[in-house]
Structure formats: C-alpha cells, structure tokens
Amino acid sequence: MAAKILPVVKLATKVTIAGGALYIAVDSGLLGSSEQGSEALGKAKAAIPPAIEEWMKYFGLEAQLPTMPKIEFSPVEAWNSGVRTSISALSEAPTKAAGYTNQGLQYLKDLTK
Predict the structure, then answer these.
(1) pLDDT in tens, 64-96
(2) What span, in angstroms and rounded, lies between the C-alpha atoms of 79 and 38?
(3) End-to-end CA distance of the chain, in Å?
(4) Which 3-state string (H, E, C) describes 48-64?
(5) Cα distance between residue 53 and residue 62, in whole Å
(6) Which residues contact 39 (CB under 8 A, 6 or more apart)?
(7) Which residues contact 73 (CB under 8 A, 6 or more apart)?
(8) Cα angle at 16 between 12 and 21, to 5 degrees?
C-alpha cells in the first residue's frame, strides 16, 4: 500500500512546489508588464544581500562575501531587443531559405557529376 502512495505524494509535492513558484512569480510582478518586472528586480537586489548575511549568521559563517556586482539590466530594453531580433529573423527567412535551397541543389548537382 505504501508503494502506491509514494508516487502520489511525490507528484503532490512537485505540483505544490511548482504552484508556489508560479504564485510567487505572479504576486511579485515577474509575469506582469516590463515596468513591474523592473520593480521586482529592484526589490530582489535590495532584499538578497541582507538575507544572505542573516543566513550566514544563522549558520555561523562569518566569511566576508564579495561585493555584489553592478548589473545594468533593463527588462524593457531586453524585451525590445528580443522582438527586433525575432522580427528581423522572420523577415530574412524567405531569402535565407532560398539561399540554403540553392546551396543544397548545387551540392546535389556536384555529387551527381
């Protein structure tokens, strides 16, 4: 009987962890607009170093951590860059497909000679 319950418990644990992660992501604004994502990133940058120090004191580790690197990341610019890259790739796709087709045909012609 316990062998039948274990897979159910494992699945329930995985679903609970995934659901919790999704809830936290939505609640913190990570899945919202780019402005909400920027705010969430700023909150994380402000909250992580004190939390690490607190955990280090809790576990008795008094090692000095290196300073946090300055990360210049703007989700708005990253999103716009991704959209531009995708649209550029889609607009060049017919030309590149024709070029690759011609290269393939030329390769086949060279093989048959």
Answers:
(1) 667 767 777 777 777 777 888 899 999 999 999
(2) 12
(3) 70
(4) HHHHHHHHHHHHCCCCC
(5) 9
(6) 29
(7) 41
(8) 155
